[in-house]
Amino acid sequence: MIQQRANFDWMLKELADGVHGVRQIVVLSADGLRIARHGGDPDGADRLAAACAGLQSLAAAVATEIPESDGNGKMRMVIIEVNGGYFYMMAAGAGAYLAVLAEETVDAGLIGNRMRDLVVRIGAHLTSPPRRDGQAV
Which residues form the Roadblock/LAMTOR2 domain (predicted)? Predict the structure, then answer.
């Protein structure tokens, strides 16, 4: 597991504090390893990160079936509504993603915009280098 980076704390906290209803935020690598988190517990964040890797792969497969897609199958954003809340996942730099769990009361437009703003502002810092045998290359 990648250690949580202390300099991400304030950025993720700012997103959580800026949108009412945010429960947990996770930054993860494309292969499902947690890079940073805010809210929730570490084990839950690790499970969410692992699930996001599968979801990202599924979204890429679906994207290839969209005729207007550029054919690269890259996911930009996934939104899932479930009983009790929402899940958002957005591409956040080369090999990294930003995931948010939120309550039903969250302003869907606001959270999407704030996530996008965060990615634009710090996207270069939300990258995860490729790994070989569990080590960064």
Answer: 9-102
Crossing angle for the helix pair 9-18 and 108-122, nearest 10 degrees? 160
Is the pTM higher than 0.70? The answer reads yes
Hey, what CATH topology would domain 6-129 get?
Beta-Lactamase (3.30.450)
Half-sphere exposure at residue 17, Cβ-oriented, CA atoms within 13 angstroms? 6
Residue type, 133: D
* 94: its two tokens: 């080369």
CA atoms of 28 and 44, how far apart (whole Å): 13
Of 42, 39, 35, 135, which Cα lies nearest the Cα of 95?
35
Distance CA 69, CA 62 (A): 10
Q: What is the DSSP letter of 124?
A: G
Q: What is the DSSP letter of 30?
A: T
What is the per-residue pLDDT for 59? 85
* CA–CA separation, 125 and 54 (whole Å): 23
